[in-house]
């Protein structure tokens, strides 16, 4: 296999993982089957870990399985596992690090793509419970004004305070 093949497989897998992550987050984590683990992510965290982190273990186990299968029988699966791993690193840096500040750095983006991503995920956490949430992606964020309009139209925020300790953007008064 030439170098182009693996690079394409990795790039396509990273892109496909955003769709997969959106789907899993929207219909499994916020669904009746997955809410038991994911609920911890929408509540106050006590300590460095939360039950929701078990999803990372599941996805890591799947990537390890693909590494094993790819190394033994189907080499292209090894590159899919690399793409999944790259997406996992992006997820960790952006979601856990930037948005939830679970890493040692503290940075709140003030403009551009990262600000939009930050605000979109904060709006996701602005709803109490698993229903009526918006913005289920981790790397793509819809325009913040669209998310605010959807939340307003759904009535999900009527008279409610955010349940998660950092549910509102620090700069919520800014657009």
Broad shape: globular
**Major sheet characteristics:** none
Helix/sheet category: mainly alpha
Total strands: the figure is 0
Please write the string of helix (H) and strand (E) elements.
HHHHHH
Give the distance, in angstroms, between the N- and C-terminal Cα atoms: 48 Å
Instruction: Determine the number of helices (DSSP H or I, runs of at least 4 residues).
Output: 6
Low-pLDDT runs of 5+ residues are 161-175
Mean pLDDT: 84
What does this structure look like?
The chain is mainly alpha-helical and 175 residues long. 56% of the residues lie in helices and 0% in strands. The longest helix has 26 residues.
TL;DR?
This protein is mainly alpha-helical and 175 residues long. Helix content is 56%, strand content 0%.
Features:
175 residues, mainly alpha, 6 helices
List the helices and strands and how they pair.
Elements lengths: L3 H26 L5 H4 L15 H19 L2 H25 L12 H13 L19 H11 L21
Helix pairs in contact: 1-4, 3-4, 4-5, 5-6
